[in-house]
Amino acid sequence: MTSGAVEAARTILTSLHEVMASRSNAQTKLNNVVEVIGECLDSEVCSIYLLREGMLELFATRGLAQEAVHVTRMAVGEGLVGSIADRIETLNLAEAAAHPDFMYRPETGEDKFHSFAGVPIVRRERAVGALCVQHVEPRRYEEVEIEALQTVAMVLSELIVNADLIDEEDARALTAAQTGPEQMRGLTLVKGLASGVAVYHQPRVTIEHIVAEDTEAERQRVILAFDRMREQIDRMANQAEFGMGGEHDEVLETYRMFAYDEGWTRRINEAIDSGLTAEAAIERVQQRTRMRMRQIDDPLLADRMHDLEDLANRLLRIVSGQIGTAASMGLRNDAILIARNLGPAELLEYDKRRLKGVILEEGSLTSHVVIVARAMGIPVLGRVRGLRGIVREGDPLLLDADQGTTMVRPSPGVVEAFEARFAKNRERQAVYAGMRDVAATTLDGTRIKVMINAGLRDDVANLNLTGADGIGLFRTEFQFLVSATLPQREKQTRLYRDVMDAAGDRPVVFRTVDIGGDKTLPYLRHDDGEGEENPAMGWRALRVALERDALLKAQARALLEAAAGRPLNVMFPMVAEPWEFDAAKAVFDGQLAYLRRQKKVLPEAIRYGVMLEVPSLAEQLDLLAPKIAFLSIGTNDLTQFLFAADRSNPKLAERYDWLSPAILRFLRRVVRTLEGTPVDISVCGEMGGRRLEALALLGLGVRRLSITPAAVGPIKELVGKVDLPAITAAMEGWLAAPPADLRGTMTAWAAERDIAID
Questions:
Q1: By the 8 A CB rule, do 513 and 264 touch?
Q2: Strand order across the beta sheet in which 126-135 lies
Q3: Is 176 among the domain residues?
Q4: Which residue numbers delimit the GAF domain (predicted)?
Q5: What confidence tier does 117 reach under pLDDT thresholds 50, 70, 90?
Q6: Please, are residues 128 and 111 in contact by the beta-carbon 8 Å criterion?
Q7: Closest to 343 (Cα-Cα) out of 297, 300, 299, 309
Q8: φ, ψ dihedrals at 544, nearest 5°
């Protein structure tokens, strides 16, 4: 809160305290409240709407027609007031009538008022009403006024509940829990299947007292709570999970950074200064954080705000004495954890034997908790809206993170089908696990290299688990994404050395940092500070590295030092023209010369390669081929560029097919261009991990695949059933005269040869 907001809130709270302490009835208190707020904020209109019988009813007003009190009612989601309650968010409008949710109610006499601001009145994370102000003149309300309204709304929630002005059961009916089966959809964050009972990560802390009687005593409670929370974070940093130098400790460093953030502490103290109790002050700042989160477009910054939300919940539990969570109480059955969001440290508190899956109301692919969950092998489904309104504690859940769904309270038939699929999946996994020590060789004796994609130190363990031939793509940017600051060269060197040590004799291809686009870093911005309309095709990957050459120099030195005495494979991403490769290699040559002058041990050999993601590079491969040792085709980006279809846009997800003749012909041309050269060709991308698509790639002449670890077993099993001459001939025919449905044709061809494709 600003100093002005603190003063305004303190003035209002002082007056409200007198109102609440009076002997008048609840309606009179509300009438006095709107007068107090209106006068303090110099507002021509102040109105309070409360939830009654499922509708938002005008309970008190200053400035609107008094005849409308207890007459004007609207549904949740209806009009501006209904929108505030439905979305639990603040509105601040210079011209209310211009908003798409505006609805005119003639009985209120509000037609002469233009500006509008409203905040939700929240109880147990549900909106039970709205507090609104209006002015005749069009203007946006100052931040100080909005913050004061939000603080007052917290006090009102206590007043209206204590005065029985709303029925809490009625409030819960706003999102009443269903009793029958319900399927919910979300975003797959970590793939996998799981079943268990719903367990809420943390019961909501109920704040019983909002207005402080002794400000200094409340401040001391917060200080003690901060000390205890920081002790907990430091203790977790010493746990075994964080002692191995993996990515977890970098995640926790960011977590600890927030725990010691002075700005966060200051905002809570300012809220206490305004007259709130310690619990209410923390909740007040937390509400502000949630509203900011809704406005953040940057996914990485949004994830950092989620970490702060996690810490605020922890602090609130400590200061209130309600510190029990599902983790501390222990899981008694196989459980699916439910949370709005989850911090990485909190996930690690759970019993891994009982925790089978996680479902989040929020979450994103780059969040810290996803990194930890992936390392733990726990499926995670995110962006599942309305969880608290549908899922009850103890409800049976079937989580299918592969398909992005969860079934709540499934019927016996659904459970039986899921268990059959689960059993079949386990059988398949057992078969695939048995392929670990089997080389991927076709029926005609051709050896196919099956490698894995990785990005974390822990991912390297999948080499031994899957029997992969190496790491065909190590995404070095992951270390940058989980760090609060630019990783130092020494830390990069340790990571790369550890990865090569763990891989042993198997090759590791390190892709230089690919940031930008959807992988933004808060500590690395455009010089002009401007955003990009199309970041996937903008300032990213090698373009960033060449412009910020200090970043590439540090990474080059780290890779060269880590590979001392052994082979090094370096791959440059998003190369569009040969000169970009030349410029990037020159950076490595410069660092190599420096190390040579310093008498350092150099790599035994260095193999350079590029990723073919930008179609323009295919037109100059004859110029590039003499300079490179390998070419890796990144089918994810390549496909979106070929089809001008953003792969992150759900409306375009089905607009193109990897088995389209257009992309298969493009890939065949690339393979043929490099025939007769010593350049190794591989495909690294989701396409190579799908069985039918992998079959097509083999028919095009691709002999090296780099895929997710989970796909290694299935692809090895597929390779063992393939007759290369047969699929090569078939592909030639299909691409010469493409059938109307190439996918269907290939599926039938595979079925005739007993090759399963799913």
A1: no
A2: 73-75, 55-62, 45-52, 126-135, 115-123, 91-93
A3: no
A4: 25-170
A5: very high
A6: no
A7: 309
A8: -65, -45
Measured CA to CA, the distance from residue 659 to residue 744 in angstroms comes to 10
Inter-residue contact 513 to 481 (CB < 8 Å): no
Residues 6+ apart with CB under 8 A from 525: none
Residue 414: domain span: 182-203+349-427
User: Is residue 664 located within the same domain as residue 559?
Assistant: yes
Cα distance between residue 413 and residue 120, in whole Å: 42
Q: Which residue type, as a one-letter code, is found at position 3?
A: S
- Asked if residue 377 and residue 299 are part of one domain, the reply reads no
- Both 688 and 729 in one domain: the answer is yes
Of 373, 396, 427, the last residue of a domain is 427
Distances (CA, A) of 590 to 347, 486, 560: 44, 22, 11
Q: How far is it, in rounded angstroms, from Cα 665 to Cα 635? A: 13
Tokens of residue 329, six digits? 């109480």
My answer on whether 297 and 227 are in the same domain is yes
Contact 363, 388 (CB under 8 A): no
Residue 191: which CATH number?
3.50.30.10
Task: Provide the 3-class DSSP secondary structure of residue 750.
Answer: helix
- Does 285 share its domain with 241? yes
CA distance 265 to 256: 14
Confidence at residue 727, expressed as pLDDT on a 0 to 100 scale = 97
- Residue 239 — very low, low, confident or very high, per pLDDT cuts 50/70/90? low
Structure tokens at 511: 């892709």
Tell whether 198 and 150 lie within a shared domain: no
**Count of Cβ atoms closer than 10 Å to residue 193 Cβ:** 18
User: Does 471 reside within a domain?
Assistant: yes
pLDDT in tens, 688-740: 988 999 999 999 999 999 988 878 988 999 999 999 999 999 999 999 999 99
- In order of 100, 122, 142, 152, 439, the CA distances from 119 in angstroms are 18, 9, 14, 10, 63
In eight-state DSSP terms, residue 348 is T
Query: Number of structural domains, the chain?
Result: 4
Tokens of 741: 């449905």
Q: Is 332 part of any domain?
A: no
- 606 or 535, greater pLDDT: 606
Dist. CA 81–CA 130, nearest whole Å: 7
CA distance 674 to 690: 24
174 pLDDT exceeds 50?
no
Residues 276 and 419 in one domain: no
Residue 636 lies in a domain: yes
pTM over 0.70: no
How far out from the chain centre does Cα 485 lie? 19
